[in-house]
Write a structure and sequence with these properties.
This protein is an alpha+beta fold. It is 49% helix and 9% strand. It is built from 17 helices and 11 strands. The protein has helices at 17-26, 57-66, 82-85, 94-104, 110-138, 145-162, 169-183, 190-193, 208-232, 239-245, 257-288, 290-300, 307-311, 314-326, 358-361, 382-390, 405-422, and strands spanning 41-45, 50-54, 143-144, 333-336, 341-343, 346-348, 353-356, 423-427, 435-437, 441-443, 448-453. Helix 12 packs across helix 17 (405-422) and helix 14 crosses helix 17. The structure holds protoporphyrin IX containing FE.
Length: 455
């Protein structure tokens, strides 16, 4: 039998509330019981809160696609991120969120993706050159690839957004400060599940607020400079310029500097953490399944620096899609029921927290063939096609779908192919990564691979 990619251990079916909270705090993935891979819906009822995990395709569709306005983003989710993200599109709801999307979405339309391609390609070449030096320096010792892919994905974002490479002084500092911030913040903290009244003061880990302020000051510098360049007619034609010059067709207003700082912060955070996580897991899967690695390297041989070439990376895209299924960078999302509901013959009171879990849905035993196996050919099968439509939400779905989904599906396969064309990756004995949920799905002790040049 072929080996299965790493999956975190599940907890026993019944544990005390305190044990659950402790497990949850350590890692939300291993804090869940195995039955969630088979359940259509599960309720977490405790003395303090009530939440439901929705794991049935039509319920997920109701919440995300059919009636999204009735299920706003839970206010609590953003608590840990608010000092950094302010009123960013990731956290807002209702009219504010709708207006923000009207201004942001045009920057990510298909045609614009073509325009960002040269910057992505340049970031890919820089990543190859950086890794080349690292491989040389390592002298055959294992290399931690989450670090490699974080660097590459951050570079992609700075180049496409602000036309500056990661080596740029401000970009480099934003990058390193984000890392410190991210380490201290799980994407779903306990506060998401334990409702605290508004008047309870929020405590953040030490340094969180100070770090957030510094990051925002740095981003404000980039944004203010860009405002000036737009005024002078000298601004480069990149994502920042596009967003900052787009006016909301309904109100006729654009973003002011502070609101733009909020958006840049989320583009950077949502855009690099997620892609970095996905790329690192894909590289691990390639080390685990060397025949696929060889096929991708072969496919990448003819890769040219032109946008159309990306559409020819068919295998790379299937592999990346499969990696997003097994290791969805955003493992869970939370919404709130704004009115009483009845789901699967159960009352869902107003105010309940509804958890949508790409992690569980993507490995649902009653939906997917070979749910825990790595099989990039599944996307051509009937089961794979149906599940892709109904049970595959790495970018969420509906009007609140990830703005960067199209961007990420170009970036991921491209960077993957550029890396595999140049390098071969192999597993390191005794260093199997264990997935845990930090801000995104990461490996407990990093992902270590032996990397060598192909030539
Ligand atoms: C593999 C890469 C990526 C994955 C898996 C991913 C996943 C997601 C998911 C699941 C959400 C919805 C979260 C929720 O509703 O709670 C989201 C939202 C978002 N993502 Fe991504 N993302 C990726 C890359 C990007 C990139 C490259 C960008 C920008 C350049 C980006 C920008 C955003 C923004 C702005 C939102 C908020 C949208 C809204 O709430 O209206 N993402 N992403």
């Amino acid at each position: 039998m072929t080996e299965l990619p790493p999956k975190p251990p599940s907890r026993p079916d019944r544990v005390s509330l305190w044990r659950y909270l402790r497990l949850f705090k350590a890692d939300i993935l291993s804090a869940q019981p195995a039955r969630l891979y088979r359940a259509w819906m599960a309720e977490f009822r405790t003395p303090f809160f009530r939440s439901f995990l929705l794991n049935q395709p039509d319920l997920v569709k109701t919440v995300l696609k059919e009636r999204p306005d009735d299920f706003p983003k839970s206010e609590r989710i953003g608590e840990g991120l608010r000092p950094l993200l302010g009123q960013s599109v990731f956290l807002t709801n209702g009219a504010v969120w709708k207006r923000q999307r009207r201004i942001i979405d045009p920057a990510f339309e298909g045609g614009r993706l073509r325009d960002t391609f040269p910057a992505m390609w340049a970031a890919g070449e820089a990543a190859v050159a950086r890794l080349d030096r690292q491989v040389e320096g390592a002298g055959g010792a294992p290399i931690e690839v989450e670090e490699v892919t974080s660097h590459a994905a951050a570079d992609v974002i700075f180049r496409t957004l602000f036309s500056i490479p990661i080596e740029h002084e401000v970009a480099a500092e934003v990058f390193s400060r984000f890392r410190a911030y991210q380490r201290a913040q799980p994407i779903l903290n306990l506060a998401a599940f334990v409702p605290l009244p508004r008047w309870v003061p929020r405590f953040y880990p030490r340094g969180t607020r100070a770090n957030a302020r510094i990051i925002r000051d740095l981003i404000r510098r980039l944004t203010a400079e860009r405002m000036a360049e737009i005024g002078a007619g000298t601004a480069p034609d990149d994502l920042a310029t596009k967003i900052m010059t787009t006016l909301d067709p309904v109100t006729g207003e654009g973003f002011d500097t502070e609101e733009m700082v909020d958006q840049v912060a989320i583009f950077f955070l949502a855009g690099h953490e997620t892609s970095a996580s996905a790329l690192a897991w894909t590289l691990y899967l390639m080390a685990m399944f060397p025949d696929w690695q060889e096929r991708l390297a072969e496919e990448a041989e003819g890769l040219e620096p032109e946008f159309a070439a990306v559409s020819r990376l068919r295998l790379s895209r299937d592999v990346f899609r499969e990696a997003l299924r097994l290791y969805p960078p955003v493992p869970m999302m939370v919404r709130e029921a704004s009115c009483p509901e009845r789901f699967r013959d159960r009352d869902v009171p107003k105010g309940s927290q509804l958890v949508l879990s790409p992690w569980h849905l993507h490995r649902h035993e009653r939906l997917w063939d070979n749910p825990d196996g790595f099989d990039p050919t599944r996307w051509q099968t009937e089961n794979g096609k149906q599940c892709q439509r109904e049970a595959y939400i790495p970018f969420s779905a509906g009007p609140r779908v990830c703005t960067g989904a199209g961007f990420a599906m170009v970036e991921g396969p491209l960077i993957l192919s550029m890396l595999l064309r140049r390098f071969r990756v192999e597993r390191v004995a005794g260093r199997e990564p264990v997935p845990v949920a930090h801000l995104t799905v990461r490996a407990q002790d990093g992902i270590w691979l032996k990397i060598s040049r192909r030539d």
